[in-house]
Amino acid sequence: MKLSALAATAMALMTWAMPASAQQTAAQDDGPAAIAIASAISYRQIPADAALDILPADDTDLVNDALELSVQALSQRGHPRSSDAGYVVNINAVLVRGVGQDAGLMRLEEGSKRGDQYTNADKSPYGEPLTAGNLFNSEDGAVLSPARPQTGGHLMRISYEVYDRKSGLYVWRGQIERDSIEVGPDASLQQMIPALLQHFGTSLPQTEVPLN
Prior knowledge:
Blueprint: H1 2-17, H2 20-29, E1 34-42, E2 52-56, H3 61-76, E3 87-97, E4 154-164, E5 170-179, H4 185-197, E6 204-211
Parallel strand pairs: 2-3
Antiparallel strand pairs: 1-5, 1-6, 3-4, 4-5
């Protein structure tokens, strides 16, 4: 009993003597590495066993990975994939590095109806109509200029739009995003997608999702 009491006292003294920064780090180790924020809005009920035509917004590796995980998650919820399904699901996934540089500025997706890919019609030296390379470089006709000091991490956003093929009207929209360099893209996708799609077809207020 005396030995246990001495050990407890020693541990308490060690914790008290630990620098504040080390104590904070130790406390953080007990919590999630990052927090994602999920939200969704339902316009009309989707039948529980409805087939879905699941399509990627573009052909990037990130979107294709999100597509594969989404197909798996939705299949587990009873939604088979079919190219002629009555409901169409568009999936998009983006990773924006250095989000602090465009803080407070208009996002590209809020631009003209022609679409972001035509913003720089003359093409940049990087060989793309609009590339991350010329977002912040004013010499290349930057959209977001001038550059600002980086204050954020890496913003990853996965978004879904579901519409009725016959009417063309949206029936559900959802998105989940995280701004952190503590959890990599692959691990983020694997955790964020199932967390959001648990609420597929239903409305969800902004909800925190812990990531590890």
